[in-house]
Design a protein that fits this description.
The complex is a heterodimer. Chain A is mainly α. Chain A has one domain: Ammonium transporter AmtB like domains (Ammonium transporter fold). In chain A, about 65% of the residues lie in helices and about 0% in strands. Chain B is an alpha+beta fold. In chain B, strands 2-5-1-6 form a four-stranded antiparallel sheet, covered by helices on one side. A two-stranded antiparallel sheet of chain B has the order 3-4. In chain B, strand 3 and strand 4 form a beta hairpin. In chain B, helix 1 runs antiparallel to helix 2. Chain B is elongated. The chains are: A mainly alpha, B alpha+beta. Chains A and B meet through helix 9 and helix 10 of A and strand 3 and strand 4 of B.
């Protein structure tokens, strides 16, 4: 790994690590004030427990060896990943990819807001990371053969996922739906209103996510070449198009341009460009962002007719946005300057790529839903995953963490 | 002595305070409150979901004044808080039995 690549990947790693706190603020602002610290904590928990799991087992199982279904234990407990072994190349990747691993279960937290026991979340995150994130990641990005080609079975079939549209956003989005099904709806949903407690916090979170996403998408190629430039520009344009499209949709549908619409649309555009960032060029990122902004703005309303209390719209933004971007690769993929891969329908390719995109997402959806459902059922039967009614009504900040987000009254020392 | 209580639009607070100072009122207590009257509330929309907000932000001003000044104070608040649009608020006057300035122990009119 040359100096420029090392430097770029370390910068990108820090950017991606910053995204989990960004997501925490994005979600926390949308939550009610009595649960806002619990929401921050669920995200920060992901940022501290996943790197540990990643170093011990996750990285090796998600990327090692040359199998098609799962990695090996060659790098477990960080063995062979020091700077003495390969000038630190594997250590750079361990950190960069670990940052992706950390934010993925954190995405699910928005769906379980206001009602999940924190102890259950604390156990769920490492289990989900190992049993769902690791295998899906291996299928799409894992394993290398003697020629340096990927050996994971979805990658060898020919589906494309540049930075984690399928592996991260669709995966976490459908897991969020499974969690909502097992956990049930909040007391008083949907009759009682649950408006955001702090829109400025949501906007700060969005700004941090936008900033971090440049590392997420343009480092994913692992090179400081033209692909990184294209991915960077695509991220910039898709975020703008997504925010624009959602805001305009709301203006037409509900009468106002809203801050939450802009924030949600930017995130939807960013989610959608994630799988496509290094595979499309020209105006394509703008079309992808616009499509995601409109489709997701309507998708978030479906939970009411379906009766699923996906509290902060993880399914409607991340699963739907991820699917939009991933499937549109089948239309817009543009090889040549960006590398050697199959072209999309609109660039002279056949329907083969679109079919592979569909298969990769369908497999991820079925696997992630089933395993997430099973993990939560087992946790529910053993430790219980739902906070007591009293705790839910008091608010999870006080009941789970003995803290209050906004202390307006003075207190005295208890001891 | 009378207790004057006024519920007004928050952005009129500076005007009311200035007007009261000009007529010699030299103390008041202000609280941020929420409520509704004929104006009712408004709706907010988040991700397409409408929320009815019934309680709107208002400011409550309280001042204890001498019986003879009460009428003037009432009129001053009404004229300085009025925008002629719905939601301007209300002012009312109630009798006060006793008042004490805590630092000096003065009572009655001396303490106002």
């Amino acid at each position: 790994m040359d100096g420029a690549t090392t430097a770029w990947l370390l910068v990108c790693s820090a950017l991606v690590i910053f995204m989990t706190p960004g997501l925490a603020f994005f979600y926390s602002g949308m939550d009610r004030s009595r649960n806002s610290l619990n929401m921050l904590m669920m995200n920060f928990w992901s940022l501290l427990v996943v790197p540990l799991v990643w170093a011990v087992l996750g990285y090796s199982l998600a990327f090692g060896g040359s199998g098609s279904l799962l990695g090996n234990l060659d790098s477990a407990f960080l063995s062979g990943t020091g700077i003495g072994a390969d000038q630190g190349e594997s250590l750079v990747w361990l950190v960069y990819l670990g940052a992706f691993a950390a934010i993925t279960p954190a995405l699910i937290s928005g769906a379980v807001a206001d009602r999940m026991k924190f102890s259950a979340w604390a156990v769920f995150v490492p289990l989900w990371s190992l049993l769902v994130y690791v295998p899906v990641t291996f299928w799409i990005y894992g394993g290398t053969d003697a020629d340096g080609a990927l050996t994971g079975w979805l990658a060898t079939r020919g589906s494309l996922d540049f930075a984690g549209g399928t592996a991260i956003h669709v995966n976490a989005g459908i897991a969020a739906l499974a969690a909502v099904v097992v956990l049930g709806r909040r007391k008083g949903w949907p009759s009682e209103g649950h408006p955001p407690h702090s829109m400025p916090l949501v906007m700060i979170g969005t700004a941090i996510l936008l900033f971090g996403w440049f590392g997420f998408n343009s480092g994913a190629g692992g090179l400081t070449d033209g692909v990184a430039i294209q991915a960077f520009a695509n991220t910039f344009l898709a975020a703008a198009a997504g925010g624009f499209a959602w805001a305009l949709t709301e203006r037409v549908k509900d009468g106002h341009f809203t801050n939450l619409g802009v924030a949600s649309g930017m995130v939807a555009g960013l989610v959608a460009i994630t799988p496509a960032a290094g595979f499309v060029s020209g105006m394509s990122p703008i079309w992808i962002g616009l499509a995601a902004g409109v489709v997701c703005a309507f998708a978030v309303g479906l939970k009411f007719s379906a009766g699923f209390d996906d509290s902060l719209d993880v399914v409607g933004v991340h699963m739907v946005g991820g699917l939009v971007g991933s499937l549109l690769i089948g239309l817009f993929a543009n090889p040549g300057a960006l590398g050697d891969f199959e072209a999309g329908l609109l660039n002279g390719g056949g329907a083969g790529l679109l079919l592979e995109q569909f298969i990769a997402n369908a497999v991820t959806i079925v696997f992630s839903f089933a395993v997430t459902f099973a993990i939560l059922k087992v946790l529910d039967l053993t430790m219980g995953i739902r906070a007591s009614e009293d705790d839910e009504l008091t608010g999870l900040d006080v009941s789970q963490h003995a803290e209050t987000a906004y202390n307006l009254a003075e207190s005295t020392m208890a001891r | 002595m009378k207790l004057i209580t006024a519920i007004i639009k928050p952005h009129k607070l500076d005007d009311v305070k200035a007007a009261l100072k000009t007529i010699g009122v030299d103390g008041m207590t202000v609280t941020e409150v929420r409520g509704f009257g004929r104006q009712g509330g408004h709706t907010e929309t988040y991700r397409g979901t409408e929320y009815q907000v019934d309680f709107l932000p208002k400011v409550r001003i309280e001042a204890v004044v001498d019986d003879l000044d009460a009428g003037d104070v009432l009129d001053t608040i009404v004229s300085s808080a009025r925008t002629d649009k719905i939601g301007d608020g209300k002012v009312w006057v109630s009798p006060v039995d006793e008042i004490v300035r805590i630092r000096t122990g003065e009572r009655g009119a001396e303490a106002v």
